[in-house]
Every structure is written in C-alpha cells, then in structure tokens.
Design brief:
5 strands; 17 helices; about 400 residues
C-alpha cells in the first residue's frame, strides 16, 4: 500500500506542477487522463468539457484504448449515459450489455467491462465529465477514487483559471475596441453618442422581446459597434450624411462589410459579426449588403435597424433635420413590414411608453401610439408600394 501511495503522490505532484508552471489546459488534461489510466490500470480514460447552456461538447480528451462507443457519442447521448444532475458517480458494471452505451463500435464495446463516470464543476455553464473504463468488471478502490477525484478537480481548477483569464482578457479588449468606436463619434457634435444611444435602445428592446440575458448583451455590444466600419471612410463623406451623391452612397453602403471585417479576426466578437454585417438589411429584402429578407435577417440586426433609424431621426445630422418625436414614431410605423420587422417596432414602442426617459422626455407618450398599433401589421401590397415611393430618399436607405 505504501508503494501505491508513493506512486499516487508522484502523479498528483506532477499534475500540480504542470498546472502551476503555465502548461496549457489541454496538456494538463492530457496529463490527467494518461496518469489516471496508468494508476488505475484502466483500459482507457476520457475527459469531456460540456457546455450545459448550449448543450454541446466543447472538448473531448482521451487516453488508452480508443473506445468509440463512448468517445464518439454526441451531447445528448453522453448526458443519457452520465447525467451531471445526479451529482454522484455513475457506475456501469457491464458496458457490453448496457443499453445507454450505443454500438458505435460493436467489437470495441465487447472489449470493455465496467465504466465509472465522475463529474466536476468548472465555471458558469461548463462541466467536466470523466470516464474510466476497464477490461474486467470492477469498481474503483477507495484510495483510487480519492486520487481520481483529486486529479479531476485539478483539471477543473485549471479550466476555471483559463476561462477566467480568457474572460478578463476578452472584457478588456472589448472595452478597448468599444471605447475606440465611441471616440470616433466624439469629433462630430451631431453624431456624438449615437452608437451608445442605439445600444441602449437595442438592449431595452431585446429584453422586451424576451431574448436571453446573453443575447441581450450581444445586441447591446453590437449596437455600440454597428457603425465601426465607417472608420475607413473619409470625413468629407461622413459630414455629408443626408445629402450624399449616388457614388458617395455606394461608398457608405460598404460600412457593414468593413465593420464585420474589422471584427472577424477578433474571435471574442464572433457573435456580434452577423449583427454588424446585416444591420442595414430591410424586412422586404431591399437592404444591403446581402438583400436578406424577413426572418432570414438576424433578430439582433433587426433590432439595431429600428433603433438606429429612430435615434438618427430624433437627433438629426448636419444635412438632416431633427424630427419631433411624433414624426419619428410615425416614420417607424410607415416602415413596418417594408424596412422593419413589425414585432420589433411594437416592442420598441412598448419600451418608449414604459421608459420615456430613455428618449430624453418625461412627458406622457401614450398619445403618440393610439393609431400606430391598430394598423402596424395590416399593410397591403399597394400600401407597401406607396410607402416605398414616399420614402425613396429617406434615412432608411
């Protein structure tokens, strides 16, 4: 027994050293599954990292016999075999005839006897699942169980640290990029604060639509960065917004593509990229750059489109007169089903009614919506054509 504890201590020390000397998380997990296989005389060992919120397997690291009947399973099958909600080890005495384990590799399944599954908390939606499988039929001895648990927890600690470090770094970089985007507006008195206002409107609207907390924050950050593509445009063109020539308008229409291109290399912005790219698509398919239509436009982009147009109307531009609130609201109503998703407009109107301070007024705004709700969905083809003609030169392009 003394020899076993000596071996256990050496392995635990080896893994701990790897964790505290900056070894990558993957290398740490590889070290853990390799040493667990060795110390328990197992046929093999697998460590999965799962994302319970998105219901998917993020990473799978294994050592020993390639047991495809386990290593090849999808998230749903894995959770059916090892359910983390049980909060206790899972012991499968004879994997050959256990219906939970699929016959992905029948010959391989016949070569495995008992399987033990263990669970480890990592951070947020992430959990670790560790499986040890043997040729014979046996449970882990108490001392083996103790060591395997300790090693699994070491892996969870390493992952927790890596996730926290990544989160802090991503937050810092996001703040730098967003700060830069807001600074770009500071030189223009008319547009200064536009992106932040759009982002705030968009966040409230996303909440009103019942989007998840994560989706709401994605919409908010995309709202801040929606015009970042204008960084590559000449000041003389930006100063003329509202009175652009056809040639200049073609240049301005490139900014969603430029913006998405700026964010593409920044992996922590990958969820924002489609919202930036498509925030000038129109509900009837007349927008740009891809002419997406209706539900094919990402919901976040549809939200930003409404909030962007509204904020531009009530704030104005150098060559675009600021509109009173009732006219701005009427402008959105006219664009329903044409340029904007009607359910997004309804949600936005509800936000304004509930939060009049969000648009800089403490007055009652209910009177502006009395006629709007009645007809927002009931717009025929003839009306759409008429409205398109009326709005040819409007800001909605």
């Amino acid at each position: 027994m003394t020899d076993d504890y000596h071996r256990y201590f050496k392995i635990f020390t080896k893994v701990s050293k790897a964790i505290h000397t900056g070894t990558s998380t993957r290398e740490i997990l590889e070290c853990i599954v390799e040493n667990i296989t060795e110390i328990t005389y197992a046929k093999g060992c697998i460590f999965w990292i799962i994302n319970e919120m998105e219901q998917k397997i993020e990473t799978m690291i294994s050592h020993g016999f390639t047991y495809q009947s386990l290593a090849g399973v999808d998230y749903e099958t894995l959770i059916n075999i090892f359910d983390p909600r049980e909060e206790k080890d899972v012991f499968i005495e004879d994997a050959r005839y256990d219906e939970r384990i699929p016959d992905l590799e029948r010959l391989g399944k016949k070569r495995v006897g008992s399987v033990t599954g263990m669970f480890f908390n990592i951070a947020g939606p992430y959990r670790g699942i560790l499986a040890i499988y043997f040729t014979n039929f046996r449970k882990l001895e108490p001392d083996e169980q103790e060591l395997v648990t300790a090693l699994g927890e070491q892996g969870a600690i390493a992952l927790n640290r890596a996730l926290n470090n990544d989160g802090e770094r991503h937050t810092m970089l996001r703040q730098i990029v967003e700060g830069f985007a807001l600074a770009l507006e500071a030189k223009d008195g008319k547009s200064h604060g536009h992106s932040l206002k759009v982002a705030c409107f968009a966040r409230l609207t996303a909440k009103e639509l019942g989007l998840s907390k994560k989706e709401v924050e994605i919409v908010y950050h995309a709202g801040i960065l929606h015009d970042i593509g204008k960084i590559g445009m000449e000041d003389r063109i930006l100063d003329k917004l509202g009175s652009l020539s056809v040639k200049e308008m073609k240049i301005v229409k490139k900014h969603p593509v430029i913006g998405a291109g700026i964010l593409k290399p920044l992996t922590f912005f990958h969820e924002l990229e489609p919202l930036i790219l498509h925030h000038h698509e129109r509900f009837d398919g007349s927008g740009y750059p891809k002419k997406l239509k209706g539900e094919k436009i990402p919901m976040g982009a549809r939200i930003i489109a409404v909030c962007d147009a509204f904020e531009t109307m009530i704030s104005g531009r150098a060559h675009m007169k600021k509109l009173p609130l009732n006219q701005a609201i009427a402008g959105l109503q006219k664009g329903a089903n044409l340029y904007f998703d009607p359910k997004v407009i309804r949600a936005f109107f509800s936000v304004i009614e509930k939060n009049p301070k969000s648009i800089g007024t403490t007055d009652s705004v209910e009177k502006y919506f009395e006629k709007m709700r009645q007809n927002i969905d009931d717009i025929g083809a003839e009306n759409l054509i008429k409205k398109r003609m009326e709005m040819q030169s409007s800001i909605f392009f």
